[in-house]
Design a protein that fits this description.
Blueprint: E1 8-12, H1 17-27, E2 32-37, H2 40-54, E3 66-70, H3 76-90, E4 95-98, H4 119-144, E5 148-153, H5 166-180, E6 190-197, H6 203-208, H7 222-234, E7 242-246, E8 250-254, H8 257-260, H9 268-276, E9 287-293, H10 300-303, E10 304-310, E11 319-327, H11 332-337, H12 346-350, E12 355-356, E13 361-368, E14 380-383, E15 392-396, E16 401-402, H13 409-427, E17 435-438, H14 444-455, E18 459-464, H15 467-475, E19 480-483, H16 489-496, E20 501-506, H17 511-519, E21 520-528
Parallel strand pairs: 1-2, 1-4, 2-3, 4-5, 5-6, 6-7, 17-18, 17-20, 18-19, 20-21
Antiparallel strand pairs: 7-8, 9-10, 9-12, 11-13, 11-15, 13-14, 14-16
Helix pairs in contact: 1-2, 1-7, 3-4, 4-5, 13-14
């Protein structure tokens, strides 16, 4: 959802802390805001500040730009009345942020009462009221028949235990799982997400502050929390998503796809696909076909031919026979077929012909040598070595990479994925909170680079050529796409990033290399991946 003047938002707990910051940030976008809070003094103060900001976008309207409604969010009647007043005033509800929350008042183990004024009240404010507010927001959005976004404030202590505040941790954990379970509402145009920051310097945080605050990197800047909330509002792909924000790792979504895959059941479509992606016919033929380079040429079609060769058994003791299901296509195949990867003169290189072609493949282990102990027949595996363009390939066992499934996606993770990962994480020593520029970003490795940089909590800038590529990069989460066919890259970098670029992932070379080098920030790092322009 694009944050623009004329939208309306309701913020519970909007008089202080994160709720206050979000109320003001929304008003600064021209959004009409209803501030719902128990504190009348603070609520009216924030409403006055927010109205000044909102008035920069609107004038002469017959309804208030910002409203304050005093409300105990644990009182179902008061909460319902607040939502109804907002709906009647603004004719609908576009954004709801449930930010009201309190910490553990006294340790629950020391509570000698029924808990109604202590730990039960914490659960009522932090969890029950969020459930009730979410329910009322959904009903308002359904009644208006317009798309809407709900952001619930969780906490990092809802993702891992907070030993000094078990009730607070339990209530926020409930908010996380409640919100993630509402992802299907996206089909109705209603997206519900949860924001989980670590400690932010608010009145609440100072009361429940962890003794390990320094190890966590100190308090989070409020600006980062606002940025995270706005990302959940703007990104149409996020529904039932949990955005975790830390000083150590920046912004990242939790759980990771790998963790989620451990418990999420596959759809019937995915299940049907998985049934046909693992051919178990491992019958070993007497011969097989493969692609070989028979003459050196930059024209790959002219350089290669398909040949049939005998499959000689038994295998060497430390070798493995892989039945290839998918092979990866790389630009490097052409450099290989033209002899660019070999030293020596033309005659020396030609003497090595024919050469097995293809750099990567994924398939099923069909046979193993007598000395191979850690691999089994029928195991899915990948290789990154010569000979991938073949029905079968024999390689030393040390080159075998076991994988979960012999799916085509594995191939992208090999050359392209590992190049991006090693380059950014090892060579560039990528951190969070930096500006990362990826050139030729719509290419195979560039697509991985922009996603890794974004997942690490960085601002990502990417170059490409053409509207389709630009759209792809936007969908991958790139913050600023520079289409060199319509914009001057050098001028954009100079104007929009005057302090320079912290990390450059450079694949083009030539003039682009010069532009990137000159655009580096102080202590900036440039990693050369390739030179496709040359």
């Amino acid at each position: 959802m694009e944050l623009k003047p004329g939208l309306s938002a309701l913020v519970t707990g909007g008089a202080s802390g994160i709720g206050r910051a979000l109320s003001l940030a929304l008003a600064q976008k021209g959004v009409f805001v209803t501030i719902v809070d128990f504190s009348e003094e603070k609520g009216k103060e924030v409403a006055a500040l927010a109205e000044k900001e909102c008035a920069k976008f609107h004038s002469g309207l017959e309804f208030p730009l910002v409203m304050f409604i005093r409300c105990d969010v644990t009182n179902a009647g008061e909460l319902k009345a607040a939502f109804e007043k907002h709906f009647v005033t603004y004719g609908g509800l576009d954004i709801c942020i449930n930010s009201a929350g309190i910490g553990d008042i006294i340790p629950f183990r020391n509570d000698r009462t029924d808990g109604s004024k202590s730990w039960r009240h914490t659960v009522n404010v932090n969890l029950i009221a969020v459930i009730d507010s979410t329910r009322l927001a959904i009903q308002a959005m359904q009644a208006a028949q317009k798309p809407g976004v709900i952001v619930n404030l969780g906490s990092a202590s809802g993702l891992y235990p907070m030993y000094i505040g078990p009730i607070y941790s339990a209530s926020k954990g409930g908010v996380v799982m409640f919100t993630r379970s509402l992802a299907p509402f996206k089909r109705q145009g209603i997206r519900i997400n949860v924001l989980c920051p670590e400690f932010v310097q608010t009145d609440l945080a100072t009361k429940v502050s962890s003794p390990h605050l320094d190890q966590l990197g100190g308090y989070l800047p409020m600006e980062l929390v606002v940025k995270g909330a706005f990302e959940l509002i703007r990104d149409e792909s996020k529904a039932g998503s949990c955005l975790w924000i830390t000083n150590r790792r920046g912004m990242e979504y939790w759980p990771t796809p790998a963790e989620e895959a451990k418990y999420r059941l596959p759809s019937s479509k995915a299940l049907r696909k998985s049934l046909v992606t693992v051919p178990m016919d491992l019958q070993i033929p007497q011969s097989f076909e493969k692609v070989v380079v028979h003459t050196l040429s930059h024209n790959f079609r002219s350089a290669i031919r398909i040949v049939r060769t005998a499959l000689r058994l038994p295998l060497k003791p430390d070798h493995v026979l892989l039945k290839v299901i998918y092979a990866g296509v790389n630009a490097s195949d052409v450099n290989f077929s033209s002899g660019r990867y070999f030293s020596g003169d033309g005659n020396d290189i030609a003497s090595r012909l024919p050469l097995d072609s293809g750099f990567e493949a994924v398939g099923i282990i069909a046979a193993i040598g007598d000395a191979v102990r850690n691999l089994k027949i029928g195991m899915p595996a990948a290789i990154m070595t010569f000979g991938g363009y073949a029905e079968f390939v024999m390689v030393p066992a040390k080159h075998i990479l076991p994988v979960a499934k012999p799916d085509p996606e594995v191939l992208a993770m090999l050359t392209s994925g590992l190049t991006a990962s090693i380059a950014l994480e090892k060579a560039a020593q990528m951190e969070s909170g930096k500006v990362v520029l990826v050139t030729a970003a719509a290419g195979g490795t560039g697509q991985f680079a922009v996603q890794l940089a974004k997942l690490s909590g960085n601002m990502v800038v990417a170059t490409c050529g053409g509207t389709e590529k630009a759209k792809l990069l936007k969908d991958l989460g790139v913050d600023r796409v520079i289409d060199y066919k319509v914009e001057n890259i050098k001028a954009v970098l100079k104007k929009e990033f005057p302090k320079g670029i912290d990390i450059v992932y450079e694949s083009v070379g030539g003039e682009m290399f010069d532009i990137c080098l000159n655009a580096l920030a102080v202590y900036g790092r440039l990693v050369v991946i390739g030179m496709i322009s040359q």
